Amino acid sequence: MTLPPPLRRSTVAVALLSLAACGTRAAAPSSYVPGDEAAILLIVDNYDFRDATIYADWKGVKHRVGMVIGKTKETFSMPWRDYEVRFEVDFVGGGGFRVPDPVAVWGGEHLSLVIMPGW
Length: 119
What we know:
The chain is mainly β and 119 residues long. The protein has a domain at 39-119: Immunoglobulin-like. The protein has one helix and nine strands. β6 and β7 (96-98) form a beta hairpin. The relative contact order is 0.31.
């Protein structure tokens, strides 16, 4: 079944926003320094046929996380740098997108990013 373009785009947008943080949070001590906690695990499901390079944007500083080949799933570990992160996806051969909302995150959490086909 093929969805009409407006409905398909909204479905894709909802799937992209399925980026979620898991874990419990406690109040941060006043002497808390980003990077002191355990690394963050990022699981990326790439349902698109294109290979994708993933970037984490920590307060305007972009770091390359890694590459996910089309139609595969990869798990990455990255250092925790701040309480919010945004993700960007660049497709090999052109195109890409930025997840519109930042994700609140603490060290040691697991995040999931789903890349839907046809974005």
